[in-house]
Design a protein that fits this description.
The chain is mainly α. The chain has 6 helices and 4 strands; from the N terminus they run E-H-E-H-H-E-E-H-H-H.
């Protein structure tokens, strides 16, 4: 990925020294994170991303890129946008990330518990389907060897 180096005013870029700040286009971020530009605009509409604007052009800063990375990771593990927002909003507390980390730990533990429960339910469904599959395969083998179909119902 090519990073654009664009010099913005110190105020717009949040840089007191006027140094160049790396910026990204919406297309660059979409390609990097494997999402559509429409998804990125959706996250912007949901107030999760805050790019600078030059006319109609969106200019994403490293902070926007980091937030998008967290959004994409959160979505991939099943967090809702509301849960992702809670974690992202804690970045703004300026407490060296401690509140965010503690909140993220709780959310991660909750999600792991939920996924383990879902996995248990899925494993039980697979076992039931495998039993049914084995029964039907047995009935088909019996029917082929006897020449007459057998009933699936047990007496």
């Amino acid at each position: 990925m090519t990073v654009q180096m664009v010099h913005h005013s110190a105020e717009a870029a949040g840089d007191r020294h006027g140094a160049e700040t790396p910026t990204f286009t919406i297309t660059q971020l979409a390609e990097e994170f494997g999402v559509t530009t429409r998804a990125i605009r959706f996250y912007e509409d949901k107030d999760l991303l805050h790019p600078l604007r030059q006319g109609q052009t969106r200019i994403y800063r490293p902070r926007d890129r980091a937030r998008l990375q967290l959004i994409v990771r959160g979505k991939r593990v099943g967090f809702t946008l509301a849960e992702i927002r809670e974690i992202l909003d804690l970045y703004d507390l300026h407490d060296s990330g401690e509140a965010q980390y503690r909140h993220a730990l709780v959310k991660f533990e909750e999600r792991i518990d939920s996924l383990r429960q879902q996995k248990s339910e899925i494993d039980a469904q697979i076992d039931q389907l495998q039993d049914g599959l084995n029964r039907v395969e047995g009935l088909l083998r019996d029917a082929q060897s006897d020449g007459a179909p057998k009933s699936c119902a047990k007496n």
